[in-house]
Amino acid sequence: MGHQTGCELNRTRTPVTIKGIRDGLVFILHDQCSFEEIVEDLEDKLNGSHRQLLTGPLVRVTLQSGMRMLTEQEQETIRDALASHGNLIIQEFQSTAEQLLKSSAVKPPLLYHGTVRSGQIIEHEGDIVIIGDINPGGQVLASGDIYVMGTLRGLAHAGCRGNERAIIAAVFFQPTQLRICDVISRSPDLTREQQRELTGTEMEFAYLRDGQMAVDKMNHLYSIRPRENERA
Q1: Within 10 A of 47 (CB to CB), how many other CB atoms are there?
Q2: Nearby residues of 28 by Cβ (< 8 Å), 6 or more positions away
Q3: Domain at 137, CATH number
Q4: Domain shared by 140 and 225, yes or no
Q5: Domain check: are 43 and 91 in the same one?
Q6: Does residue 152 lie within any of the structural domains?
Q7: Low-confidence residues of the chain, pLDDT below 50?
Q8: In angstroms, rounded to a whole number, what is the distance separating the alpha carbons of residues 138 and 156?
Q9: Residue 69 lies in domain
Q10: Are 22 and 40 spatial neighbours (Cβ–Cβ below 8 Å)?
Q11: Does 22 lie in the same domain as 130?
Q12: Which residues form the Septum formation inhibitor MinC C-terminal domain (predicted)?
C-alpha cells in the first residue's frame, strides 16, 4: 500500500483554494499538503479549471501559506507559475507561522548610561536598563520591564503597551509616580523605608498582584514570574 499524504487522507481539502476579495485574489496554500502537490494543483487551476476566470485585467494576488513558511526557492517557483498569466501580480506572501515568530521575537533591551534629568523622556519598545538615576521630572516608558541601577525619583511606566506582567526594579525607590500597564501608584504606597540610605539597601521591584501595585525584594522575582523558557 503506497504512502498517503495529508491531502490524500482528507480529500475535502484541496492544495490550493482561490478566493476573490475586494482588492484582488487570495490563493490559500494548504499547509498540510506537500509543496509538490501545491505546485501541481496551482498549475492545474492556472492552466485548466480556472484559466478563463484568471484571464483579464491586472489582478493583485495574496498568497497565504498558513503554518508553512515558504523558502525563497519555493516562492520563486510560485512566481514562475503565476508568470504564465501576465495579469496576475503577486502583492505579498503571508504566513501565520512567520507572523507568530515576529510577534514573539524578543527585542533587545535599551541600555541607557547616565542620569535621566528633569524634562527628559526615555522611551523604548522592550525592556529598558538605566545605568544611573532617574531624577524628579524625568520619565522612562517601556513596553517591557524597567531596571534602574540607581535611584528612581522620577516617573517610570513599564508595560505601557498593555503588558500586565511588566516590572519596575530599582536599587532605591523614591518615585514621583510608578505605572505598570494602566495601574498608577505613588511612592508613599510602595515603600516602608523610603528615607533609608542607598548604601547597603537591597534592590526591589514593583509588580501587579491581583490588579494592585506591590513591591518585593529582587531575589523573590523568580518565584513571582518564572522565566518563560522554564514555564514552557
Answers
A1: 13
A2: 16, 17, 18, 19, 64, 66
A3: 2.160.20.70
A4: yes
A5: yes
A6: yes
A7: 1-3, 9-10, 188-200, 227-232
A8: 9
A9: 6-102
A10: no
A11: no
A12: 112-214
The closest of 157, 165, 104, 171 to 128, measured between CA atoms, is: 157
In the structure grid, which three cell numbers stand for residue 145, read together? Answer: 520591564
- 36 in a domain, yes or no? yes
Grid cell 517557483 is found at: 77
CA distance 124 to 18: 41
Note whether residue 1 is domain-resident.
no
**If you write DSSP's letter for every residue of 161-216 in order, what string do you get?**
TS-TT--EEEEEE--SEEEETTEEE-GGGT-S-TTS-STTPPPEEEEEETTEEEEE
Phi/psi region, residue 56 (left: phi>0; alpha: psi -120 to 50; beta: rest), is left
Place of cell 534592590: 203
CA distance 27 to 20: 9
Q: Are residues 227 and 163 in the same domain?
A: yes
Distance between CA atoms of residues 77 and 30, nearest Å: 16
Q: Residue 134 carries which DSSP code?
A: B
C-alpha cell at 207: 509588580
* The residue type at 113: H
Q: What is the pLDDT of residue 197?
A: 41
Region for residue 148 given its phi and psi (left: phi exceeds 0; alpha: psi -120 to 50; beta: otherwise): beta
Residue type, 6: G
Last-in-domain residue among 77, 102, 127: 102
